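Tokens for chain A. Residues wanted.
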């Protein structure tokens, strides 16, 4: 697979022209593919979604479309091994690939179940209660939700090529909105294969799912008020895209999931030897090493009571020393590679910014022992633990090193903790690890306005906990401020995001009559 990676546009697979952007194997450095959309008619894909995909979807109604999503998820589940194998080329261990692949089809199946059970058969959802608008009761108002008549353009980050695609696709399809997927260049070949699996299963009507393997020049120019953009990626790209006239002048509905300096907090009660201390240390190591730390929800800032820094540093370091870095699938390997050498350069540069204000506790950014691969060719990096004792340090609250990197920070009481957490300017996920209900209440209530999701972890819920870094399809994923200010998932909220809410005024029972 080293020719130009195909796109699926207007009913057929087509490849761009020119040399394309090379994509290399994260482990061996070999060329995997090239990515280009030069010469492709992307405007025709937009028209195809609107004219062919949209009407086909709207014929099915909500529950019929939920069945489509179930079938698409089942198709991916059936061929998951192919996706695990490809994901290894992007540096993922089997466990990492499962987070993306199983997480992806699992999320789509949850959406399908919610849609089948919780939505009507037609295309109209009646919301809220009837509101009387006149004295005699002959004139009332109510809200209706109907499918937008445009398309959803999803622009995804490199780290979750399958999950990122399916968690956006499922609610859009259930809502009745066709989708164009634009994966990130570095892992576009994994997303391409997932799309191919779904299309080969023959479960979706034509025009409902298209794929652009590469950049999307001119597409924003033809988007309008019935369309949606769902973006996941860095805050810098989010800022650029949300200032496009498509969003600012033509009101394309824009949702951003951006980066985030997520915090985890060790409670004052959680001294060494308590279950909560071990849970905190274990969660931090997990979040640093799963997908080599390339997770938007990973713990970047680990807050500990100020007199506990030494014991936490020691405990985390000894757990990190057990991590074996190397080729996915090689004997004993527990952490794979970053997605590519450019990404490793970027993480190293960010670590240098952090080191200007924090000390290195574990790991060497320039050197790592690697199993089963050539460390000169693959994008390997040691887990890096830092520690900032100076409370005026700014870098830990500003700099995202998108790799296996986390910083320990001291806090002195809940007010100080909340003030410091706020310096991250809004996050996707936070966690409070404590068995003290008073501390938990003060910390969670203080941190809640700064977060899209907060996990409270203790000895009683740990057995069933889904973990700090795992967004759940039933619950909101997103966060304020730097995290993008958007919301994804959240069960049927994500479906409603793709619908238009219209206040309908008239006689009593009008809304129900319209929904029949
Ligand atoms: P990125 O560089 O911002 O790219 C994200 C996506 O935007 C890619 O598909 C990229 O395409 C595309 N893009 C860039 N410029 C564009 C333009 N002018 N027009 C249209 N599309 C454009 O981010 P990344 O490096 O892939 O991902 C890492 C970042 O994503 C991290 O900061 C991480 O925290 C964040 N992230 C957030 C979440 C979340 O749910 N909040 C999830 C995962 C990752 P190309 O690759 O083709 O340039």
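Reply:
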């Amino acid at each position: 697979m080293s020719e130009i990676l195909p796109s699926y546009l207007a009913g057929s697979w087509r490849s761009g022209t020119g040399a394309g952007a090379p994509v290399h194997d994260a482990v061996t450095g070999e060329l995997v593919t090239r990515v280009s959309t030069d010469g492709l008619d992307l405007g025709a894909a937009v028209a195809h979604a609107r004219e062919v995909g949209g009407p086909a979807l709207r014929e099915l109604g909500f529950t019929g479309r939920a069945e489509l999503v179930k079938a698409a998820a089942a198709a991916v589940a059936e061929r998951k091994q192919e996706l695990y194998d490809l994901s290894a080329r992007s540096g993922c261990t089997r466990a990492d690939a499962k987070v993306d692949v199983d997480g992806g089809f699992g999320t789509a199946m949850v959406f399908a179940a919610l849609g089948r059970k919780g939505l009507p058969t037609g295309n109209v959802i009646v919301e809220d209660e009837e509101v009387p608008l006149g004295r005699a009761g002959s004139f009332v108002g109510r809200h209706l939700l109907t499918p937008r008549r445009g398309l959803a353009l999803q622009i995804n980050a490199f780290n979750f090529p399958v999950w990122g695609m399916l968690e956006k696709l499922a609610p859009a399809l259930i809502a009745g909105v066709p989708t164009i997927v634009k994966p990130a260049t570095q892992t576009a070949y994994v997303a391409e294969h997932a799309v191919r699996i779904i299309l080969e299963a023959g479960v979706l009507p034509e025009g409902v799912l298209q794929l652009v393997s590469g950049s999307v020049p001119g597409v924003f120019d033809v988007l309008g008020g019935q369309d949606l953009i769902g973006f996941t990626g860095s805050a810098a790209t989010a800022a650029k895209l949300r200032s496009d006239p498509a969003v600012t002048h033509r009101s394309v509905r824009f949702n951003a999931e951006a980066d985030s300096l997520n915090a985890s907090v060790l409670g004052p009660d959680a001294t060494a030897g308590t279950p909560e201390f071990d849970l905190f240390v274990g969660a931090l190591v997990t979040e640093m090493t799963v997908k080599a730390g390339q997770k938007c929800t990973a713990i970047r800032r680990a807050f500990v009571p100020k007199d506990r820094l030494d014991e936490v540093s020691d405990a985390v370091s000894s757990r990190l020393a057990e991590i074996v870095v190397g080729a996915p699938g090689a004997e004993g390997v527990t952490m794979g590679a970053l997605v590519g050498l450019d990404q490793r350069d970027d993480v190293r540069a960010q670590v240098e910014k952090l080191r200007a204000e924090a000390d290195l506790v574990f790991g060497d950014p320039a050197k790592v022992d690697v199993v089963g691969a050539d460390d000169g060719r693959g994008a390997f990096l040691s887990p890096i633990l830092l520690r900032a004792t100076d409370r005026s340090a700014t870098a830990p609250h500003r700099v995202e090193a998108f790799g296996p990197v986390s910083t320990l920070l001291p806090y002195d009481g809940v007010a100080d903790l909340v003030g410091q957490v706020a310096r991250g300017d809004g996050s996707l996920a936070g966690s409070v690890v404590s068995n003290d209900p008073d501390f938990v209440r003060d910390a969670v209530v203080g941190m809640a306005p700064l977060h899209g999701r907060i996990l409270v972890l203790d000895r009683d819920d740990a057995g069933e906990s889904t973990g700090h870094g795992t967004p759940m399809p039933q619950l909101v994923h997103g966060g304020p401020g730097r995290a993008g200010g958007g919301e994804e998932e959240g069960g049927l909220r994500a479906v409603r995001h793709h619908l238009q809410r219209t206040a309908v005024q008239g006689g009593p029972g009008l809304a129900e009559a319209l929904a029949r």
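The mean pLDDT is 97. The pocket of NAP is lined by residues 155-160, 182, 184-185, 215-216, 232-234, 237, 240-241, 257-259, 296, 400, 402, 428, 484 (CB under 6 Å).
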